[in-house]
Fold this sequence. Notes:
The structure holds two protein chains of two kinds. By secondary structure, chain A is mainly alpha-helical.
Amino acid sequence: MSSHASTSHSTGHAAPQGFIRKYVFSTDHKVIGIQYIFLGLFSAILGTALSMMMRLRLAWPGSQFPLLEHIFPTGFPGGVMSPEFYLAVLTIHGTIMVFFLLTTVPLSGFGNYILPIQIGARDMAFPVLNMLSYWTTVVALMVLMASMFVEGGAPISGWTAYPPLSALGKIAGPGLGAGQTLWIASIAIFCLASLLTALNFITTTLNMRAAGMSLMRMPLTVWAWFTASTVALLAFPVLLGGGILLLLDRLAGTSFFLASGMVVSGKVMTNSGGSPILWQHLFWFFGHPEVYIIILPGMGITSHIISTFSRKPIFAYKAMVAAIFAIGFIGFIVWGHHMFASGMSPLVGMVFSVLTLTVGVPSAIKVFNWLATLWGGHIRCTASMLYALGFVSFFVTGGVTGLLLAQPAIDVYFHDTYFVVAHFHIIMGLAAVFSIFAALHFWFPKMFGRYMSETLGKVHFWITITGVYSIFIPMHFLGMAGAPRRYAQFTEFAYLSKLQPLTIHISWAAFVVGAAQLILLFNIFRSMRWGKRAPDNAWEATTLEWVIPSPPPHDNFGDMEPVVYRGPYEFSVPGAKADFILQTEQEVEGGE
Amino acid sequence: MMNSGLASENWNGGGSPYAVGHKKLGMWLFLVSDSLTFGSLLISCMYARTASSNWPTPFPMWPSIAFASLMTFCLLTSSLTMAFAVAASKRGDRAAAVKFILLTILGGVAFLVLHAREWLHLIDEGVRPWSNPWGSPLFGASFFGLTGLHMFHVFSGVVYLGVIALGTRNGKRSHEDVEVCGLYWHFVDLVWMFIFPLIYLMSVSPK
Ligand code: HEM
Ligand SMILES: [Cu+2]
């Protein structure tokens, strides 16, 4: 009969044989999750190396680096990084970090590994599609890397690829020929992969929950991945549409994003009728939801970990779920706050400003509930918990500056200064990266059956959090003094010359933070082989992933048919024999 | 109160809350996503139109609009035959299902051929992605961009229908597969029902 339909529904499929099917083109969500995490690790290493090069240029503008000239003969003529090369490095740094680290790891990486297990499923709804999405993401990354090696090198238009610069082609500058075209192609491919992953996550969450796993018994991580996927499903296609139009402008001679009367490199352009502002609308209609695609999984992970290590139920579970949804929804109607300085009518600016400020409400709900969960808890200060608290800290520090930027009158001054750079690095970059650290330490025992080193984790945490605050707090002051972003050098500006010591300080702090990441790398690879062995329920936690062996078998639950009897965070229940109750534990006779 | 029996129970896990299989739910989600891709293009074209003072209105009722109406007719008819195909496969009448899918393919191919003719005709009249004889160059850009993306969808749909027809004939595809394919096909139709008025009807020449 219809063999095709039935295989995808059957439980307990046999584990695949052979290295290729098992580890390379695997359809097992757990293998794919780890593949995404390693893709992110690679991206993080590359992206960090690029940022170190930028910090060198900014702090010591005239100094020569013969070694770097040796590696990049055209980028460092005479040992000094050319401003164009600086912009190319900046573009690849931003693109890699935003798309291939922050979008993939918290959502596609940990979501893939953990979500099906936490809802009691044996795999994703579409395992083959899942594999294809992963390999499509790899192709996107390879196309992006290829842009660095074509004639003219990588594009210089930043991760936001604003036209006209990005739409004009070679004539506009180095990297804007083939490099920019490949950049757009890479992002378009990435969009496809991401929306297919999102579709997979949503279907899995809706259709494949185990018996008893009602919506209000789902861990907050699942709610967060589910909402982030919904946002991704609705946001990525808009970037895809914009990308198609931008490609048409470049390859088919259209002028969607090009206005009339432009003179570029001394040549009068024939384009007319289009508008670069249109790209900003399309990009930010995607771009603002994108920042929530990045941060929502972090919020879920933080809630989950704080509850576990406070040995207390998460405070106001329902409010947390509602806040996740509110943030996801409001995220779609605030994109104009990126365009206050692009020439926007004061009325529209006002509307976007008020809408943006309302995001503060659900955000504050989350922060207060995290604090209320901590209050009076029996706190276990693990490395994972520290990183989760770091997330909360960054979410507050970065959110507060968001409220300043959300006001048009203030933003026309702050826009395109280092103040914005500080805002989004703290709230998007660091918060999401710390959620990755937290998740890694938390689920590592599940993935590999061994703990990561707590000592190394804590050392890494304290160096990193001190280091990054010494990078980004001073950046606010640079921004307030008017230092513009996306410049290779400030020393030319008399009004900024006094601040050069601050720039040098930032660079030193960045080098310390960069070096400290070696501790993390060492911890990961050492613990895989030699870490302390972990029991199945490594943290005495409550959700379904802790019911099964570490690492889990191919079909997760083996012979067991998971049934869920209670909510996700039953810690320290009065009268219970332990301070945690697994979700699979049946109600005691006459209990509650 | 929650709504009736089966559905509300399934929200509690152990089943599909909408009582649909993975494939159907997945296709619905894909279509939601794809409608935003088209939406972003349609809105961009309308943005360009609204922002320009010299948007051309070159289509006379005869022959342009009549011709485009014929294309619309082909596509709409193919949706009807697709509905018949789904009904037939639901009855378990595989032969009839295959027949109706083939008719659907015929409608799709007719649309593609007519559409290709339309492109050649406009190119003949001097419309290019970067210019046209009548006004804003974005007219041609919008026309080719939007209808090109749509044609790509129709073409993919024809291939998809072919795969499903083959699978249905030799019993490899279930009724759900036919139904899911039908969803896609109706969606492609629906998108045309936005493109037709926005590109053609709004650009009828005023005589
Ligand atoms: C209360 C919450 C927030 C408010 C009110 C807010 C407000 C803003 C505003 C007004 C800007 C534009 C500044 C400018 O370009 O002049 C901005 C930029 C930015 N925000 Fe936020 N934000 C908030 C939270 C977040 C979160 C949670 C993230 C990410 C997880 C984020 C990521 C970004 C990024 C990436 C940019 C800069 C994009 C660029 O120009 O390259 N923000 N924010
Ligand atoms: Cu924003």
